[in-house]
Predict the structure.
Amino acid sequence: MASSALPRLLAGAADVIPKDGFQEKLALGRPLRVKLGIDPSRPDLHLGHAVVLRKLRHFQDAGHVAVLIVGDFTGRVGDPSGQSETRPFLTEEEIDANATTYLEQAGKILDTSATEIRRNSEWLAGMSMADVLRLTSSYTVARMLERDDFAKRYEEGKPISVVEFLYPLMQAMDSVAVRADVELGGTDQTFNLLVGRDIQRAYGLDPQVVLTMPLLEGVDGERKMSKSFDNWVALTDRPDEMFGKLMRIPDRLIPKYLLLAADVDPDEVAKIEASLADGSLKPVDQKRRLARDVVDLYHGPRSGAGAEKRFDRVHRERDMPERIEEAEIPPDASKGKDGMIWLPQLLAALGLAPSNSAARRLIEQGGVRLDGEPVTDPKREYPARELRGKVLQVSRRRFVRLR
């Protein structure tokens, strides 16, 4: 890779350690081995997870070797980064199921046919006690307690298991096993990635370059994107749902999302940011562009334009308010064990109608719409997944976005 390609590879990065590390690695004159480790602790990926996956794809496109480590062994412990208490262990069955789903979704970003995919049980599961003692002798408890989350828990008297101290060391052994030249991760992974450098050095290898990416705020603009905060955009969201969620991000996050989520060229993002600042570009237009681009990335060309058209039909033609109340589909909205949702029962469960029979009459009278389209059949049932993300409207004034 020529040095001229560096700006694209480093675009959006929060930090590179050491600063001149890439130049030294490039001087080796061969494709670099660029590692990203993932623990399959959950099956669902969102745009926050995609930030580092996209950066790995950038290296892949530049001719380097993308090495994706599936932490089927470390996943049994769970990464303690940012945790206030010890995580429960996952079963092998849970890890395998999550890993399968993760790799399917990662394939929306990576060229998996050209990716070196490894499971860290290959080298961790077979370590003897002598191997573990050699590994643990390479690091100190004092260094571990420099880590913010460990230090805070220690000061508060909260338990830290020895297994959690082993986690960064096990992740570091991944770098030793695959002989990583570069390791990617979020800024919350900085400590673990730096441990990787130390352990590689202890095992006689040249230490890896660490490249961290910023954590992406969720659509609420307040906390990092997370399913638990209900501010996420899933890679598997339907086009309309994805578009609608992205239209809700705060204006100040438009450049960041364009760069990290939509994969727009960094120079173009810089120009857009400047034009937004001086008022020559309207935030709403750039937010629409962002939403179209992201939908196209995950659903194919022109999918974004189609989602935008449907968004406008719902929000403009029906005079829908910009801020709409959101509500979970209640468990008692299901008509039977098959999970199908009967709309009159849903309306009653959400308090949009006083009873099932009243809700049925509303539908028969044309007073109910779903994403702007009139609901005409009071007997029709819907799969819950088909309703999530859609806007349910009763009369002219009541709107609820289902989730």
Q: What stands out?
A: The chain has three domains: 3-213, 227-315, 325-402. The chain has 18 helices and 13 strands.
